[in-house]
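Re: that chain you flagged

S.,

Sorry for the slow reply, it's been a week of failed gels. I finally had a moment to sit down with the sequence you sent. For the record, here it is as I used it:
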Amino acid sequence: MKSSTKKTLRIVAASSTLAAALAIMAPTPASATDECIATTTNGHGIDPPDRGDCVYMNVYTAVDGRIVVEYSGNQDYDFYQLRWSRPGRAETQSRVRGSGAHGSWWALRNAWENTPYTFKVQACYSDIFGSDCTYWQTETFTKRSSL
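Prediction finished late last night. Pasting the structure tokens below so you have them in one place:
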């Protein structure tokens, strides 16, 4: 083997080793590790190449004053469930529209201003023995005064 070929191979090997070491030591963004490592209650999402079963949620106040909860997932779910509560009101659970990874949205009318509302969403698979759902994704949201 020529001396220049050996040098090139050493440089390539050293570069690969350095790149691998930097990748291991590089900080991982929180969203990359916190978002999709969950499994469902009955074990979906634990076998490779599955990246886990996750549900995402975004809560905001719409122009008309409703509190809107948008939800989606990373898998082809059969349905979604939503729970909501506020101080002085027991938690209510509903099966809401949407399926697949795209999910959908749900709106709460006549929400009180300056009151914390807790919203929880989970995505589910249906099977002959019932359903298999993700853990609840929770967010607390306060509708601010429009003044």
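What I noticed first: Strands lie at 55-61, 67-73, 79-86, 89-96, 104-108, 116-127, 130-133, 137-142.

Talk soon,
D.
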